[in-house]
Amino acid sequence: MQIGTAAPTSEELASAKHHFIQHKSIQDNYSVGAFEKDALRCLETLFKTHNTVIMVGGSGLYVDAVTKGLDDFPEVDSNIRETLNNELKIKGLESLQNQLKTLDPISYNAMAIDNPHRVIRALEICIGSSKPYSSFLNKGKEKRNFKTVTIGLTAHRDMIYNRINQRVDIMIKEGLLNEVKQLSDYQNLNALNTVGYKELFKYLNGEWDLDFAFSEIKKNTRRFAKRQLTWFKRNKDTLWFDYNTSTALIISQLKSYINS
Fold it and tell me: How far apart are CA 212 and CA 200, in angstroms?
């Protein structure tokens, strides 16, 4: 999954020590909770020899899990998720969305409602606990023994979307379609129900033509980026820099911020 996940190149991996890159199989069950525990153990080791560690993200939920901690949810019967996954296959996502709208309108209006994993997670808590998923959010969390400085890069939305389109074109030239073909036997796994893979599975299964599948990858990636921007802008402490800002200036301002 080197191309579709845009994993760091061998040169990038050699230039700085990386962690959690291709450390799991697509057949492994892995959750944000498991990542939080693994990352904290890794940080505990790294902070013995480093004063500063850099985390680069991706998913805002996974970033927050490490820096702020996760909300504490009750254990629920695993059969509930299995039932919901079957309903997703048979009735589609809209059926689950309507259930969530009834059981927990707050979550329905707040989350990425087109993400089936998030909808199913919220529903299984609603059903298993008989309480709204949203009622468990933002309770007391365990404090971290490290401080976090968050930085972000800004650009005009047109620029971001153009870069996304270019990036998909590059992935296609690098052989994304062949990579997806080799994973066809595993297309029902959660790890592959993701942008860049699910669209090309529809092409391989004869549901879409290739050009439409490529255009859907671009569209869905743009939507994902829009959700990322919304998520990251919620953090009022983020130090934002224009993407054209020199690395030296960013590092200088970070040092001043840390020293203060």
Answer: 10
